[in-house]
TrEMBL record:
GO terms for molecular function: arylsulfatase activity; metal ion binding. GO terms for cellular component: endoplasmic reticulum; intracellular organelle lumen. Pfam families: Sulfatase, Sulfatase_C. Its cofactor is Ca(2+). Residues 25-411 form the Sulfatase N-terminal domain. Keywords: Calcium, Hydrolase, Membrane, Metal-binding, Signal, Transmembrane, Transmembrane helix. The chain crosses the membrane at residues 184-201, 213-235. The keyword Signal applies. CDD domains: ES (cd16159). It comes from Terrapene triunguis. This is Sulfatase N-terminal domain-containing protein.
């Protein structure tokens, strides 16, 4: 062939490569569970080893003010999937139960919500979720799967419909609604002691009480015990389940194989779909308690079991990125790493810390306003499209991923609802210098705790706190007595006027401003309050997915691989070889 022919072939090849890398890239999203911002090396931790996450940041863009829409997993992940504040989809809560508590409950991500997976699926992407879901399962029967990932745009699902809790491993350190369980145990013991006292009194003649009354009281006590123990006493079987698509693979799941299984599934999906385009959402079970860690990493970190678990998760990130490299997909894959919210400060066993560290930021998991509960890692990589080794300090949100990946897939955004997320590509590529977010609203359940104002014509970054949790004990920075801070009632303090901070000079929120120290105090508060009113005008009433009824265990909705209540099986067997 003549030189012009070779030149033409080379030009076409280059154009195809460019088109594939800029039009519809593969999309890899990785989300840790309960990881603190201060747990990652590239965010300042020099005692935990996270080389793979750090390398990802070095090869791409690191966001330092990346904000979760909620400080707990269920609402935060709902916002991530839909690009909308949880209050808009009914995934916020007005009660103390702010997450989904049961796979056998009826609450979950509403079927009329459009996830980014659905948008990408409509654009020809093969979509998969591997790991944690925690957005509900069923509505009216044990197999309708109305809230299931496959009903929300994912072609493939392998993982837990719920989340890891201590009960998945043992019942020694109960985690699921621990205070309520403790009360139920106390009431049951009081009832049992009362029945025993009446029985002894009757037999010894000390009490003039009829047998009928004793039997009736004993029967009522037994029914009370069964009513709560039938759910809380078998959490391991009801909630710790492994699914492959619609089928239960393990019930209860074998925790010792979880790391290997999740990793193998992620790598296998990449290998099967290397010709793309694909969306792979790896929702790690790490680093949520009970911190299931393989022997290879046990005792290897400087921060006990929690540190071991973080370092194992980083290793998993590396193996997934290796699979991307092995298939030659690195330059055509938009990669993202984050956490669903801040680290869990109150996660402790005796004197051992089992939760994360949030760096200089006050508060943690469960706290809707303080930075430690909502500021999370945000790392992006797309070689040749995004700059390398770049740091952006602008306020961004986990909800922005929705708009961003829809844009990359040339997807059609829903026009019949408010989308709170923004397209991050111009900011990530350096085409614009400022975030599109002027105001960000920080909810704790359905209660607005704080508002952030990114004033465009000023270097100031204001944040007003209307409500803050009362720490227990006072001054400890967390709610150690209750295990998690509350959003309302006697456990919070309301501020009028609001506490005001300038995060640009006081990111740790140590020195609240006042009219005496900040001349613009009244102006700033007035502008923020006007923004709150405008925001509330965009809210519409929706069914509450975390209501008392939706968030109670219902036996007829319980997924079961046997004949209820005999629910146990292991269909995985030894099909998954260890990758360690």
């Amino acid at each position: 062939r003549d030189p012009l022919s070779w030149l033409a072939i080379l030009l076409v090849s280059c154009l195809r490569t460019y088109a594939s890398s800029t039009s519809k890239p593969n999309i890899l999203l990785m989300m840790a569970d309960d990881l603190g911002l201060g747990d990652v090396g590239c965010y300042g931790n020099d005692t935990l080893r996270t080389p793979n996450i750090d390398q990802l940041a070095k090869e791409g863009v690191k966001l330092t003010q990346h904000i979760a829409a909620a400080p707990l997993c269920t609402p935060s992940r709902a916002a991530f999937l839909t690009g909308r504040y949880p209050i808009r989809s009914g995934m916020g809560s007005s009660t103390k139960q702010r997450i989904l508590y049961w796979t056998g409950g009826s609450g979950g991500l509403p079927t009329n919500e459009t996830t980014f997976a659905r948008i990408l699926q409509q654009q020809g992407y093969t979509t998969a979720l591997i790991g944690k879901w925690h957005q509900g399962m069923n509505c009216e029967s044990h197999s309708d799967h109305c809230h299931h990932p496959l009903n929300h745009g994912f072609d493939y699902f392998y993982g837990m419909p719920f989340t890891l809790v201590n009960e998945c491993q043992s019942t020694e350190n109960r985690q699921l609604n621990a205070l309520v369980q403790a009360k139920y145990w106390l009431y049951s013991q009081i009832i049992a002691l009362t029945v025993l006292t009446l029985l002894i009194g009757k037999l010894t003649g000390l009490f003039l009480v009829k047998w009928k009354a004793i039997i009736c009281f004993a029967l009522c006590g037994f029914l009370f015990f069964i009513s709560w123990f039938s759910s809380y006493g078998f959490v391991k079987y009801w909630n710790c389940i492994l699914l492959r698509n619609h089928d239960i693979s393990e019930q209860p799941m074998k925790l010792e194989k979880a790391t290997s299984n999740v990793l193998k599934e992620a790598v296998s999906f990449i290998e099967r779909n290397k010709h793309g385009p694909f969306l792979l959402f790896v929702s790690f079970l790490h680093v949520h308690t009970p911190l299931i860690t393989t022997e290879k990493f046990l005792g290897k970190s400087r921060h006990g079991l929690y540190g071991d678990n973080v370092e194992e998760m980083d290793w998993m990130v590396g193996r997934i990125l290796d699979a991307i490299d092995k298939e030659g997909l690195k330059n055509n894959t938009f990669t993202y790493f984050t956490s669903d919210h801040g680290g869990h400060l109150e996660a402790q066993k005796q004197n051992t810390q089992l939760g994360g560290w949030n760096g200089i930021y006050k508060g943690g998991k469960g706290m809707g306003g303080w930075e430690g509960g909502i500021r999370v890692p945000g790392i992006f990589r797309w070689p040749g499209v995004l700059p390398a080794d770049t740091v952006i300090n602008e306020p961004t949100s986990l909800m922005d991923i929705y708009h961003t990946v829809a844009h990359l897939a040339a997807g059609i955004m829903p026009q019949d609802r408010v989308i709170d997320g923004r397209n991050l590509m111009p900011l990530l590529q350096g085409k614009v210098q400022h975030s599109e977010h002027e105001f960000m609203f920080h909810y704790c359940g359905l209660y607005l705790h704080a508002v952030r104002w990114h004033q465009k014509d000023s270097a100031a970054l204001w944040k007003a706190h209307y409500t803050t949790p009362i720490f227990q004990p006072d001054g400890t920075g967390a709610c150690y007595r209750s295990g998690l801070c509350s959003c309302f009632g006697e456990d919070v303090t309301h501020h009028d006027p609001p506490l005001l901070f300038d995060l640009s000079s006081d990111p740790a929120e140590i020195k609240p401003l006042s009219p005496a120290t900040e001349p613009l105090f009244d102006t700033v508060i007035s502008r923020i309050e006007r923004a709150v009113q405008e925001h509330r005008q965009t809210l519409t009433p929706v069914p509450q997915q975390l209501s008392g009824y939706n968030n109670v265990w219902k036996p007829w909705l319980q997924p079961c691989c046997g004949t209820f209540p005999f629910c146990w099986c292991d269909k995985e067997g030894d099909s998954h070889q260890e990758l360690l």
